[in-house]
Amino acid sequence: MKENMERWIHFNMALIGGFIGGYAILNHCDLFGSAQTANMISIAMDAAGRADSNWLVRIIGLLVYAAGLMSTVFIPYKIKKINMKLFSLIVDAIALTVVGFFPAGMNHFLALYPLFFATAIQWCSFKGADGFVSSSIFSTNNLRQCTTSFAEYFCTKDQEALRKGKFFGKVLISYHIGVMVSFLSCQAFGLKGSWIALIPVCTAMLLVLEESGSKVKVLPV
Q1: Beta bridge partners of 128
Q2: Structural element, H or E, at residue 106
Q3: Residues 201, 208: contact at Cβ < 8 Å?
Q4: Terminal CA-to-CA distance of the chain, rounded, Å?
Q5: Which of 37, 106, 159, 161 could form a disulfide with 152 if both were Cys (CB 3.0 to 4.6 A apart)?
Q6: Could you read off the pLDDT of 107-151 as tens digits, one per residue?
Q7: Could you give the CA distance from residue 221 to residue 137 in angstroms, rounded to a whole number?
Q8: Which pTM does this prediction carry?
Q9: Cα 13 from chain centroid (whole Å)
Q10: What is the Cα–Cα distance from 10 to 4, expressed in whole angstroms?
Q11: Cβ contacts of residue 74 below 8 Å, gap of 6+?
Q12: Rounded to whole angstroms, how far apart are CA atoms 202 and 210?
């Protein structure tokens, strides 16, 4: 039962991750709001002499993302009983609410700061399920794990490889359902389409509370 709950939580989080990724790309000039690879490449180009008026906001964006990653170490260290999964979902909810209020003409990098911070925390707080490490905020490694596992199964008929392939396949499906939902939401509501993602955030909260027996609080009292 616990394994089933963990699995459904991860699928739910992958849907949220796909929504955030799609939302950022759709509304902010194809900028991906869940990772920093492209941003760090741009910063390296700027350091090599490329003219870029956004160099400072890029660097600050990288620092915001790094702060989110570091917070998943500092916060549990200082607050021993904190439920980081619930904390991550609260941060997701705040970020998705805030970006819906941003004006359309706002600098695209500045507009992504809340999503940078939220997805960094989500990445470290929801690390996988069924014994597999799996990102819920981007999908390249999930694609690698899915395709290589199925290839291994076809070669060896190893049932564990089949189980692994199915798991990562379901993560990929969940993630890209989130992308499709973000597209439809933004088509209907523009930037405020981010608020639609509060629905899967709430379902994830309910699943996490169920997993913890509804006894673990976000912050200890």
Answers
A1: 133
A2: none
A3: no
A4: 29
A5: 161
A6: 999 999 999 999 999 999 999 999 999 999 999 999 999 999 999
A7: 31
A8: 0.93
A9: 7
A10: 10
A11: none
A12: 12
